[in-house]
Amino acid sequence: MAVQVRGEVVSVRRAGQYFVLTVTAPGVAEATRPGHFAAFAIGDLDSSSLILRRAFSIYGVQSRGIYGGTIDVVVADSGPGTHWLIQRRRGDSLDIVAPLGRPFALPREPVACVLVGGGYGSAPLFMLAEQLRSRGCRVDMLLGASTEEKLFGVLEGKRIASTLTITTEDGSLGDAGRVTDLLPSVMDKAHAEVVYACGPMGMLAAIAGVAAERGAYSQCAVEEAMACGIGVCMTCVLPVIGDDGVTRMVRSCVEGPVFRGERVRWDDVGTVPADAFGAPTGQGS
Prior knowledge:
- The chain is of the alpha/beta class.
- The protein folds into two domains: 3-100, Translation factors (Elongation Factor Tu (Ef-tu), domain 3, Beta Barrel), CATH 2.40.30; 112-268, Rossmann fold.
- Helix content is 17%, strand content 33%.
- The protein is built from five helices and 15 strands.
- The strands form three sheets. The chain has a seven-stranded mixed β-sheet with strand order 10-9-8-7-11-12-15.
- A hairpin with a 7-residue loop joins β4 and β5 (70-76).
- The longest helix has 13 residues, at 201-213.
- 44% of the residues are buried.
- The mean pLDDT is 92.
C-alpha cells in the first residue's frame, strides 16, 4: 500500500520540545492506519543531501480539506537530519514514502484498553484511541517522560481518554517515576484486557512484562533505528518468536513496527540469539 510521493509542507508548528510537521501526501492519508510510519528523504540536490531517510510514526491524517490529503508527524530536533526537516517552510517540497510498516491490530469486540506512550513516542496513540473509541472500547491513557517538557499530547490525552495518568521521572508533572510504576494500578482500575504501547525499547520490555503478568494482550510499536524503511538494509532487525515457536530475526520496518509484546525477545534485542533460525553455528566450513 505504500507510495512514494512529492509532498508540500503545510506547516511546522512547535509542540513543547517537539515539532509537528504537516505535509500534503496524495493517496497516503486514506491508506494510513494507527501505527503506520512515513519515511522522509533528507536534504536536496541544492544542499548536502543525506543518504538515509528518516522514519516517523504518523501522528494524524486529514483526507479532505483545502490541501487534500495531509499527514502529521512529530519531530524531535535531535540531529542534522531532523534539524533540516524542521527548518522547512510552507510550500517546500519533500519526498515521502508512506504508509509503511504493520499497524496496530484493533480488537473485534469492545474491550478495555490502556494506551501507554513515552515522550513523543505517544504520537501514534491518539489516532489509535479515536478508532478504539469508535468501536466501543474504553480507552485509558498513560503518558510518561523524563521531564514535563518531554511529554507529548497531554491536552489531547485529557480530551480523548476516559482517564489520563501522567508520570515524569523528575516529578515536574504528574506522579514522580516511570509509566511502568503506575501501569498495574491503571490496568486494574480499568479491568484492561489490551495494552498498546509506543516508546523506548526498555519501557516497552517492562510494559510487555506487566501485561503478561496480568494476562493481558499487549502490542508494542518498537523504536528500532530504520535506515531504508522498506526492508532492504536489514539494520532494524530484532528477535521475535513466531507462531510456530521459532525465533527469527525480523525487520521492524516491514514485519513491524508493531509486535505482540510477549513475542519480542527484549533481552536479546541487538543480538542474534544462538537458537534463532539461521543463526551462525560457529563451525567452520
